[in-house]
Design brief:
Layout (H helix, E strand, L loop, with lengths): L3 H13 L4 H8 L3 H9 L6 H11 L3 H8 L6 E9 L5 H13 L3 E6 L2 H7 L10 H24 L5 E7 L11 H11 L3 H6 L3 E5 L22 H15 L5 E4 L5 H16 L5 E10 L3 H6 L3 E11 L6 E9 L2 E11 L4 E9 L1 H8 L9 E10 L2 E7 L6 E8 L14 E4 L8 H4 L8
Parallel strand pairs: 1-3, 1-4, 2-3, 4-5
Antiparallel strand pairs: 6-10, 6-13, 6-14, 7-8, 7-11, 8-9, 9-10, 11-12, 12-13
Helix pairs in contact: 1-3, 2-3, 6-12, 8-9
């Protein structure tokens, strides 16, 4: 994890001195790129350079040394395990604990809130107002997550994985849009903030879809759904989480043990164990029917602005604003390409202030990429359709895969012009320096 606190101090000192990065680089006899990397936390100056900086800024060298040598912030990741009734979540939790404790993580579990309330007697059918049940559920969910985050910060391990047995957006599948908006108001939150407060979401498909012989009510006292109802709930849950930056759907195309192995592989890949790689395929498609996309329950619109920063050769650095209707979250992403399909990707969540500060490091030769993204979940795969304001006849569709051999099941109604995986012309980084003409 980058040390932003150290970088912020160097940035403040430079601004107080009224210097540009180039001017400071000249004073320190280093490149302006080196200064940029210090201030973003991507690198730290040598001890001799720190002494020169302390003398130049007239601050105690001990201050800068202590900041540089400060213990890195704890890496805390919060994920959601969700899914339809009888999807295997309970067993999955045990597998996750065993797998990631072995990898050096402290693994904390936030129990399923709905089950706690129902088995405790506060069932929705026992209350006079179903909406009040959902408000209670959301409040308790938020409080539990806050407590577990506080506990995570005190764990001895440097890596902590918080696993939520369902998250706040699960509520959306059980109520009207109007009622869900009322729940969000109760929390003082927005849908973007509630959904994207989790780092990743993993949906286990109900056994009622593809493994009906395994569907049972016996292993959960709170479960009452028929297989048909379970399948409908499963679809609603996928739709509720569609739009999240990292949603993965684990279906029943294999036996149950292999299903859980696929889940562990997806979580490990997201955490970057051992290396955070991104495997994707990219297609140039005909401009989609936006009206039909908006009507789909399993499709969500997202507004994106991504700005590219100056980086070293072979390194792609960007910051991104992502959200909708005035509610946004922010990321810093570093990528290095391994093959046409696979790249090393390191992504960190930013505060708004961190995002605005990093915008000052933008590459002046690159134009910010603005696009409207439609996130579409279909055939247990997660597609991202990007519409660019410069185009009216075509768009780009991407899908992230577990590995290079995973088959792609294209969504209905999408007309592919050609696959452009690995084509540098359609790489967003390249497009920031000049959009290609339409086919």
């Amino acid at each position: 994890m980058n040390d932003y606190r150290f970088g912020e101090r160097l940035y403040e000192l430079r601004k107080q001195a009224g210097l540009t990065q180039r001017q400071l680089a000249w004073e320190m006899k280093v490149s302006d790129k080196a200064v940029s990397r210090w201030e973003t936390g991507a690198a730290k100056p040598s001890t001799n350079t720190l002494r020169r900086l302390a003398l130049f800024y007239r601050v105690p060298v001990e201050e800068l040394l202590s900041l540089r040598e400060e213990k890195p912030r704890k890496a805390i990741t919060k994920i959601v395990i969700t899914g339809g009734p009888c999807a295997g979540k309970t067993t999955a939790m045990s597998w996750i604990r065993n797998a990631f404790i072995k990898r050096g993580y402290a693994v904390l579990f936030v129990p399923e809130t709905a089950t706690e309330l129902i088995t405790g007697g506060a069932a929705p059918w026992a209350m006079a107002d179903g909406l009040e049940f959902q408000k209670c559920l959301a409040r308790l969910q938020r409080e539990k997550e806050t407590v577990f985050l506080r506990a995570a910060q005190q764990m001895r391990e440097d890596k902590v994985l918080i696993v939520c047995d369902r998250g706040l957006l699960d509520n959306k599948a059980y109520m009207s849009a109007l009622d869900f908006a009322a729940v969000l108001r109760e929390l003082g939150s927005s849908e973007v903030e509630a959904r994207d407060s989790y780092d990743a979401v993993f949906h286990l498909v109900t056994a009622a879809k593809g493994a009906r012989e395994a569907y049972t009510l016996a292993n959960n006292k709170a479960r009452t759904e028929t297989p048909e109802q379970a399948a409908a709930i499963d679809d609603a849950l996928i739709a509720a989480w569609t739009g999240h930056p990292h949603l993965r759907v684990i279906d029943n195309s294999t036996d149950f043990e292999q299903k859980l192995e696929r889940l562990l592989a997806e979580i490990a890949a997201f955490l970057g164990e051992p290396v955070p790689c991104e495997t994707e395929r990219k297609y140039l498609i005909r401009y989609p029917d936006v009206k039909k996309l908006k009507e789909l329950p399993n499709c969500e619109r997202v507004e994106i602005i991504q700005t590219y920063l100056k980086g070293e050769d072979g390194q792609e650095l960007r910051v991104r604003q992502r959200g909708s209707d005035g509610h946004y979250i922010y990321f810093r992403t570093e990528k290095r390409r391994l093959t046409d399909l696979t790249r090393v990707e390191i992504e960190e969540r930013l505060t708004r202030d961190e995002y605005l500060r990093l915008l000052m490091q933008a590459d002046p030769a690159a134009r910010p990429i603005r696009k409207t993204r439609y996130c579409l979940t279909e055939n247990s795969q997660y597609f991202e359709i990007d519409l660019y304001p410069q185009w009216t006849k075509q768009a780009v569709m991407e899908i992230e895969l577990r590995d290079e051999n995973e088959p792609v099941r294209l969504p209905k109604g999408i007309r592919v012009i050609r696959e452009v995986t690995g084509d540098p012309v359609y790489d967003n980084h390249a497009m920031a320096y000049g959009m290609p003409e339409e086919d």
